[in-house]
Amino acid sequence: MSGPPAVPPAVAPGSRVALVAPAGPPPADLVERAVALLAEWGLEPVVLPSVTAAHGRASYLAGEDAARAHDVQTAWCDPAYAAVLCVRGGYGSARLLDHLDVAAMRTATQEHGPKPLLGSSDVTALHEWLRERLGVATWFAPMVASVAVLDDPVAQDSLRRALAGEPDTALTGTDVVAPGDARGVLVGGNLSLLAMTLSDRTRAGLTAHPAGAIAVLEDVNEATYRLDGYLTSLLRAGWFEHVTGVVCGSWVGCGSEAEVRALVAELLGPLGVPVGWGFDLGHGPGARTVALGVPHRLVADPGATPRLEVAA
Q1: What CA–CA distance (Å, rounded) separates 251 from 192?
Q2: How far is the C-alpha of 38 from the C-alpha of 258, rounded, in Å?
Q3: Which of 16, 57, 126, 157 is 20 to 30 A away from residue 66, measured at CA?
Q4: 201 and 156 assigned to the same domain
Q5: Are 290 and 171 in contact, with CB atoms under 8 Å apart?
């Protein structure tokens, strides 16, 4: 593929969309609400087996690894589905990566074109894998079967518009940690997952972002010292090499915002790239849906509100 991919294609009214659980099991009542919501949007949601499955040992996993991977691969490869919506994060997406058939998924992409995959949090592992192995863009979006969407009109509307091909093209933050103006393909997501999947990138010979990138970082319920460890791991592994800018989303349950911001300034400030703070991305209220793998521009002027825009 020459050049970065385009924004994921719109999902036409009446299309079938697959609901999958690559990580944790979703509450049944939230799945029912998600199905009703998607139907209200004019789509035909299909709940794949992983959504209601149970793991033999671990209650925190939505079924066995191979079964969850099978659902993801089926949803991606079967042209009957126009989109893949991950219903819940939690933990487990990294465990299914080795069960995915790269060749089969690449062939399906070439024959039928890429399709939108939506999710965030633990699904960061899938976003990185799809971008690096298949060269496709995906939607970093709150989970459709979560209160983050079902009880949040702002997040819900942003996700709906992304599916309809009318996504947010510009987001604003609250503060500038380091000034500057950057362009690059948007990568990243949940900080702890990026650190957790470093070995996967190393095995594939992907130690940096050769074409340049703007990194999105966010997390939830992580102590500041653990965020320190994740950032340090990424820095030591060369993950930030050729990163042109950093966009910081929400840090819900991660201690005081001032402490986390100071940590980001201390560790990422020396990179010499612009760092924007306080974007509505991740686990906070009003979380927006943004396209990973797509060129963006980060404008972080001193004393001004930082902006993240889809690049022309």
Answers
A1: 12
A2: 38
A3: 16
A4: no
A5: yes
Four-residue CA torsion sign, 2, 119, 229, 297: positive
Helices (H), the chain: 28-40, 65-77, 93-96, 102-112, 124-134, 147-150, 153-163, 191-196, 198-203, 224-237, 257-268
The two structure tokens encoding residue 20: 């999958």
Residue 82 contacts by C-beta under 8 Å, 6 or more apart in sequence? 11, 12, 15, 16, 17, 115, 116
Q: Which positions ≥6 away from 306 have C-beta within 8 Å? A: 172, 173, 174, 175, 176, 247, 274, 276, 277, 278, 279, 298, 299, 300
Whether 26 and 114 share a structural domain: yes
Note the pTM of the prediction, 2 decimals: 0.95
Q: Which of 113, 144, 163 is the last residue of a domain?
A: 163
Last residue of one domain, picked from the residues 116, 144, 163: 163
Same domain for 152 and 189, yes or no, is: no
DSSP 100: S
pLDDT at 86: 98
Residues with catalytic roles: 121, 218, 283
Beta carbons within 8 Å of 49's beta carbon, 6+ residues apart: 63, 67, 71
Q: How far apart are CA 188 and CA 190, in angstroms?
A: 7
Same domain flag for 53 and 104: yes
What's the structural domain count of the chain? 2
Residues 195 and 147 reside in one and the same domain: no
